[in-house]
Design brief:
alpha/beta, DUF2620 family protein, DUF2620
Length: 119
């Protein structure tokens, strides 16, 4: 089971986008930034998807501060390719930020890649 936490201004929309995929073995849970950092550090969650208006700051600020930049990546307002997502996962990234107006494109792509790694 892959446990994904989501937070930020578009957290409910991320839950809807991920749940709508119907991927087995994926659990998505709304979280605050602070709770997400604690759960990720303790190994009680696997990934965090954060959203804000630009995807570059508030979506990951607390998590970058508590988990370190090496675990985090922001897509900002861009939509990543599958190859970009795979490369970031290979680097060990577990925390991702993106703009709220990119949820429908970014969240499904990320979660499909995460789910494929647990099969």
């Amino acid at each position: 089971m892959t446990k994904i936490l989501t937070g930020g201004v578009g957290k409910s929309e991320v839950v809807g986008a991920v749940t709508g995929l119907g991927l087995p073995g994926v659990e998505i849970v709304v979280s605050s930034d602070m709770d997400a950092a604690v759960l990720l550090r303790a190994g009680r969650a696997d990934y965090f998807l954060g959203t804000c208006h630009t995807g570059a700051g508030a979506s990951l600020g607390v998590l970058v501060g508590l988990l370190g930049a090496a675990a985090c990546h922001t897509f900002g307002r861009s939509v990543p390719s599958g190859a970009q997502i795979e490369a970031l996962l290979d680097e060990g990234k577990r925390v991702f930020g993106f703009a709220v107006d990119q949820i429908d494109a970014v969240a499904p792509a990320l979660v499909r890649a995460l789910a494929a790694r647990t099969l």
